[in-house]
Amino acid sequence: MGSIDSRLTRLENDPDSDFIELRGGGRFWYEPHELYKSFFLYYMSCLGSDYRGEERPPTPPIFEAIAQAEDREAAMSKVSPSWRNWRTDHRVKSAFDLDVLVDEGRIEPFDWVRYIHDHSPDGPHDYPGRVQDTEVGDDG
User: Fold this and answer.
1) Which of 21, 46, 107, 125 has the most neighbouring CB atoms within 10 Å?
2) What is the pLDDT of residues 15-68, one digit of tens each?
3) 123 within some domain
4) Domain count along the chain
């Protein structure tokens, strides 16, 4: 299996790997060609979960790494160069509020189903996962 040093050297020399510098001096290693799983596939999974009102799958580690990055903006730009336009550039698929992630280091879910329904030209619509605002009636 080899020593930890030889495995780390192989990882550092692997042209298919990259890393994010973390606060405290650590590194989070990832494979750029696998990022679609953390962005697009996770996004698609969350669309279904949000629509049905179900719990989302666990957060992909890349987002946790960005939240803990030494330079969150540089880390986000490294993994998704056009992230700044994530709400309008539909090539960027994210189930998280990327502005909050970069600015505050918090992982905050972004519910596209609710956003689309609430901003529809026809007005808000109901869907299975939508939490309805209830009016309190006069019971007495």
Assistant:
1) 46
2) 678 999 999 999 999 999 999 888 899 999 998 998 888 999 999 999 999 999
3) no
4) 1
Give dist(CA 84, CA 117) in Å, integer.
23
Type of residue numbered 57: P
State which residues form the domain around 84.
Answer: 11-118
* pTM for this prediction: 0.75
Terminal-residue alpha carbon distance, the chain: 74
CA distance 83 to 98: 7
Residue 138 lies in a domain: no
Q: What is the pLDDT of residues 57-76, one digit of tens each?
A: 999 999 999 999 999 999 99
With respect to residue 135, please indicate whether it lies within any of the assigned structural domains: no
What ranges in 14-137 are assigned the alpha helix state H? 35-36, 42-52, 61-67, 72-79, 98-104, 112-118
Handedness of CA 96, 97, 100, 102 (dihedral sign): positive
With respect to residue 129, please indicate whether it lies within any of the assigned structural domains. no
SS3 13: helix
Number of neighbouring beta carbons within 10 Å of residue 18 = 15
